[in-house]
Amino acid sequence: MWQPEGMGKGAILGSAVLAALATIRSVNTVATWKTVQPLPDMPLNDGKVSVVIPVRDEESTIDGCLASLRTQRHSDLEIVVVDDASTDRTVAIVQEHVDADPRVRLVRTDGPPPGWAGKVHAMWRGVAETSGDWLLFVDSDTESAPDLVGKLLAAAARDDADLITTPGRPTVANPGWWLLLAPTNVLLFDSASPDGSRGKAVGIGHCILVSRAAYDKAGGWRALSAERADDIAFATAVRDAGGRTRLVDGMDSLTSSGLDSFGAVWRSQRKSSVAGGAMLGGPTVGAAALGFAGLLHIGYGIGPVLMALRGKGFTRLAGLAAWAAQSAAHRSYMRASHLSTGTSALAPVANAAFGVNLLDAAYRSVRGGDLWKGRDIR
Fold it and tell me: 215 and 245 in contact (C-beta within 8 Å)?
């Protein structure tokens, strides 16, 4: 067997494994995005749709969210905003929309009871106030084109789906998208699929449309009362109850301002990791798992660069192959997000940065958790 001078069998095997792993993940990510279809061109005006918006201290975004929803062309629409004990001007802003539009209602809570996550509890309370054939859950930092609701319904009809979900297009591009969200997407597609055919079903909290029948059959939000990764858990629960789920590209009809800065992306990713880690078996186990995953991602990112720049022979070729594969995976995500793909060449840097974010999450877990809008998210 050919072996470069000074290079042991262990180094050859390690280089080959890294290149193979990056290639397999890249092929999966690229192929998965090719199955994600855009929303249909023609909206469907059929059935009552109940929009539920959970809010907590959202004074900077809720006005735009409600203003855009009130422009929807769908003829049978109700909008229920559930306030989760806000301390800013959120309630006052929502009340202005309630006074101006009879389709908008406000439900106020004092926060979640023991055993409930705040957002999940708010959505559960909101559903109890609705009567639509379809339920549409949107985040308060989103803004919708006038045809969003109709096109979501058209996608459900086209795909014979019980649940349709889409991310929102960023209103301000920033490095957080390619440094943190691209690696997150690759990791998501390692264990979840847009149609729920393998692993978990994909759900994006920005926007989830589900039929009431499928919602009830899956047990609703009550069945996920303590869940922090609520979007994926909800889509998976609908799938497991016999529903059909689909991730679609609705970014031409939906924007999201919640991740408009690098700091916002960093904190959001860290929050999700802390919450997810705690659910693995408590804060200590979660912190250990996050720390281990962080180190793996740093090595996954730095390895190809060192191999390509400092290696020789097989090592260099393997490093270049791993680098190219990581870049291809990130390029597919950036293209799907309607963003520039030029940064994909720096995919190894992004994977290392994601690893550092996971280490930050592990540190926060050890130090006692991470606060999100004044609450411990563990």
Answer: no
What span, in angstroms and rounded, lies between the C-alpha atoms of 110 and 142? Answer: 24
Regarding whether 320 and 192 lie in a shared domain, the answer is no
312: pLDDT strictly greater than 90: no
For residues 168 and 25, state if they share a domain: no
Integer angstrom CA distances of residue 45 from 5, 83, 166, 308: 69, 29, 19, 55
Q: What are the residues whose beta carbons fall under 8 Å from the beta carbon of 124, sequence distance 6 or more? A: 116, 220, 221, 222, 225
In the predicted structure, residue 1 carries a pLDDT above the cut 60:
no
pLDDT at 187 over 90: yes
Rounded distance between C-alpha atoms, residue 211 and residue 135, angstroms: 6
**Model pLDDT for residues 165-179, shown as the tens digit of each residue:** 999 998 988 999 999
Rounded to whole angstroms, the Cα distance separating 313 from 316 reads 6
Let me know whether 300 and 250 are in one domain.
no
Shared domain for 192 and 89, answered yes or no, is: yes
Residue environment code for 184-213, b if the CB has 16+ CB neighbours within 10 A, otherwise e: bbbbbbeebbbbbeeebbbbbbbbbbbbbe
Contact between 283 and 378 (Cβ < 8 Å): yes
